[in-house]
Model the fold of this input.
Amino acid sequence: MNEFVISDESVNRYGFKVLTSGINLVEFKKNPVMYYNHQRELGVIGRWKNIRTDGDKLLATPVFDMNDELGLKISNKVESGFIRAASIGIQKEVIPPDTYTVNSCELIECSICDIPANKNAIMLYHDDKPVKDIEGYMKLILTKKINYMNDNDLKIILTALDLSSGATVNDILGRIEILKGEEPGAMIENAIRLNYIQSYEKEGLLQMGKANPGLFGKYMNDRKVKLMDERKKEFNTLIDEARRDNRLNFDGRLREFFEKSFEMDYEGTKYALSVLPKKLFVRDIINKTDTGYKTGWTLSDYRKKNPRELSMNSGLYNRLLEEEKERTSKNNNK
Done:
């Protein structure tokens, strides 16, 4: 397997560089883990050997875990030349004020990457979690009070974002969210689709997005969070009712599936949970057979005796409605 340049002193995705001489390799050499795209949740796909420096370059040779499905897959792509990049993950960074240079840091992992931001992208870690984007980096700087920039730096950023000196972290992050791609109009349309913003609010929100992007971003996020909380409570109620009525028995994985489905398709999942048929026991089947339960029931019978089932079962309702129309038509033709 070919040797990789896993880091050098070129400018990384955050606009600063990491001095190779300042990278602490001691702990990493004891446990030189390899991830794919810094995704620890996917597991270790290999390790690194022959870790060494050559001038301003940090070099290492990958050793893939061929017994791991992902490790084997990525190994084949590297061997065939479809993936050629690596990226180090660092923490405990020391960045002097008014500079964009990491003088020292600790290397904690090195990943194979498909599309790095540059030829040797660097992934920052904080509290053992990767800082994956510029928003996360800004939040790290502004909320953890790290001395990465002074008041003048902050003033420059606020001016560039067209924000006042009294702007909050949420103001800055809200403006960055807009600059990242989704315009207020698109955000509002998506919010209307998800039903946490009403159509009549659109014009007022568009004006807010133009006049105060930070406030707009925070307001939209707060509305979404409130809606998700309300829907979560409704979801739990529907689940509890389904389990209590013996209409649903499932393990944690199935519950997780319904939770994700509820977030993506609220109305569809709500309907699916409401129309789940009740579990029948042997005694129920015998009783129904003996008594002719519901046999011959018309639309009128269901409306009087079991309107709940009728409201939840559109197929049953449509069939009974057609039967009712046929009976009426026959009676009229006599």
User: Anything to note?
Assistant: The radius of gyration is 30 Å. The chain is about 50% helix and 20% strand. Residues 117-121, 140-147, 285-291 have pLDDT under 50 and may be disordered.
